[in-house]
Every structure is written in structure tokens, then in C-alpha cells.
């Protein structure tokens, strides 16, 4: 259904006359992946992009993952939320991409839970989080003379892993190279390559937890971490409840930080509504080689048994404490940018 403007089809592609919006009929979906091939932009274009969770009603209500023309030879990748026709950006980062890289490239808009991610040629160019819309149809919105081809939309329903016993060695899953459907990103974003998951966001912590009812009340959550420099941090997360199930909030974690002198700062943390409290801490002197932080790859464990919390590094117990704030919740990981994770295990 054409909701605005006019879209014609010729020579195997859809072209807009005026700012045009069209959505699929009879579709109501929550978690979707929408994609299309896009052309090279030209100066007068305002943008082109993919629509998800379009709602019928007063004005336009939807998410739009778009390439907005930044110059005659560049696009700006932006994720927009429309509420009654008023558009506001919800992305936490933007990327400027050249017309040459966009030419006949594949634009992909993934809307999974509260996570909104926009890719161009399998490279993450924008992401954000929003809970305004939970379901709706999909489509395209194009500026005057914009063209798209090879439109596709599929549902990508989340799976619910079983814990304890869940493991993830983060095998690459081309073409997406994202976390599997067992995971939900709650803050930041992750990419998957070379059998590791790596945090991408520089503007906020990268947090991902297991979906659904994957709650580990008593047991262990563990992972191997790979650092590249001083000033980085990584955590395994337990009993995550979030704020209404989202965000970087409300959990325990076993955290390790790289210090400039090569020491490792290790801590058991409690996050309440985004505020961190240190429940226990120590320093591992000379753990890292300051000339090559990649040489040490700590295996970090958070063990939870009732109110007792323990942190183990490389099979050695380093910390223990007690706290009763969180009795149950999901498990996951939290990292700064460019920190990689492998061998995530629950037991």
C-alpha cells in the first residue's frame, strides 16, 4: 500500500516520485530483518531507507533505517523514529559512507526487541535502542527519484537457550556476523568474526544477555576475554534483570580492567539502576605485558550460590562476597570497545 507519494516499477527496480512511503499488506511482525539493494545517490536526494514496525493511525508511526544524503558523493546513515509524522533520530552513532561504497550495495535494517541496527554491505553503520513500537508491518520510504531493488523481509524470532549448560564459541554467521538469536543486545552492539564477539560502541558500554527465561539463579557464568590496550574493561554478567528488561542496569558482574602499568584490576560489581557499587576488589600485579596486552587472555568466572558471589580468574579464586539484591536473572557480557569474548559458558 502506498502511504505517501508514488512508487513506480520499471527495469526491475522501484523508483519514487516525491517523498514516497509504501508498506506491505497483511503483515504484523515484531523481530524482522528488512533489506534492499540501493543505488548511488545524487545531489537532490533527501534519503532512502527501510521501514519496520509501521503502525496505522494518525500520521506516520514507524522506524526508518535510512541513508540520508550528506553531500553529492556521501550518505549519512541514520535510524529515525516517526511519531505522528514527527521524525527524531534514535541512533547512538552515525557513519558517513561514500556513494561509491553504497553503489548497488545491500542496506539491511534489523529490528530485534529494543535493538535497532542498520548495516550497509554487512558493516554496521548505525544502531540504537527504542521501545516505542513492538510490532507492525515493513516497507520502504524513498525521497524523490530514489531507487531500490531486491526488497526482502524475514522474521528473525529470538530463541530461548537453556541454562545451565549453554555455551557459545561465537562462530561467524555470514552474512550477518552478529550474535546468534540466543542473544539480545541491551546496550551498544557486538560483531562476530574469527570465532569471537567484539564490542563496537564507543559511546556506551556493550551489553548483551541471553534471551527469554534463561535465568541462572545458582551456578557459574564464564568467558575468555581478549584485550588490546590499557584502559579497557570486560565483565561476565549474572542475574541480569535490566530496567523492564532493557539497558545497562540491575545485575552482578565479575569485572577485569587493564591498567597502564600492566596490573589487572578485578572486582565483583553490583549495578542498581545504572549505578555501580564495588562489592569486592583486588589487583593482580603484572598480569599483562604493557608492550603487548594481547599476550594474556584471562578466563573470568562469576559464581553465584544464594547470596554468595565469587570471582575466579584462570581457575583461581580471587574474590568472594555476599549480597542479596538480585535473586535471579539472565546472564551475559559487558565490554568496552574493541574487547573480544570467546568461550562463553554457563554451568
Main attributes?
347 residues; mainly beta; elongated
Mind sketching the topology for me?
Elements lengths: L1 E9 L2 E11 L8 E7 L9 E8 L5 E11 L2 E10 L2 E4 L5 E4 H4 L2 E8 L2 E6 L2 E7 L7 E6 L4 E9 L11 E2 L14 E5 L2 E4 L2 E4 L6 E5 L8 E8 L6 E8 L10 E8 L5 E9 L2 E10 L14 E7 L2 E6 L2 E7 L7 E6 L4 E7 L1
Antiparallel strand pairs: 1-2, 2-12, 2-13, 3-9, 3-13, 4-5, 4-12, 5-6, 6-7, 6-8, 9-10, 10-11, 14-28, 15-18, 16-17, 17-28, 18-27, 19-24, 19-28, 20-21, 20-27, 21-22, 22-23, 24-25, 25-26
- The radius of gyration over CA amounts to 22 Å
Described by strand count, sense and barrel closure, the largest sheet is:
13 strands, antiparallel
Specify the structural class: mainly beta
Overall shape? elongated
Proportion of residues in β-strands: over 45%
Number of distinct helices: 1
Strand runs, count:
28
Mean pLDDT: 90
Helix fraction, binned, reads: under 10%
CA(first)-CA(last) distance:
50 Å
- H/E series: EEEEEEEEHEEEEEEEEEEEEEEEEEEEE
Q: Low-confidence parts, pLDDT < 50 over ≥5 residues?
A: none
Structure explained in plain terms:
With about 350 residues, this protein is mainly beta. The chain has 1 helix and 28 strands. It has one helix at about 100, and strands spanning about 1-10, 15-25, 30-40, 50-55, 60-70, 75-85, 85-90, 95-100, 105-110, 115-120, 125-130, 135-140, 145-155, 165-170, 185, 190-195, 195-200, 205-210, 220-225, 235-240, 250-260, 265-270, 275-285, 300-305, 310-315, 315-320, 330-335, 340-345. Strands 1, 2, 3, 4, 5, 6, 7, 8, 9, 10, 11, 12 and 13 form a 13-stranded antiparallel β-sheet that branches. Strand 10 (about 115-120) and strand 11 (about 125-130) form a beta hairpin. The longest helix is centred in the first third of the chain and has 4 residues, at about 100. The radius of gyration is 22 Å and the shape is elongated. The model has no long low-confidence stretch (mean pLDDT about 90).
